[in-house]
Amino acid sequence: MRMIGRLMKETCGLHLSDGEVVKLLDGVKGAGEPEIARLRERVRSASAVCADETGWRENGENGYLWGFFTEQARYFEYRKSRAGAVPEEILGEDFGGVVTCDFYAGYNHVGVLQCCWFHLLDDAKELAELNADRPEVVEWVEALQALYQEAKTCCRALGESPTDSRVRRKERRRLEQVAAKLAKPYVHDPDAPQRVLAQRIMKHLHELFVFVTDPAVPATNNLAERSLRPSVIARKISGGTRSPKGSATRMGLMSLLGTWAAQVKGQLQGCRELLAPARAP
Question: 15-37, pLDDT tens digit by residue?
Answer without folding.
Answer: 999 889 899 899 999 999 999 99
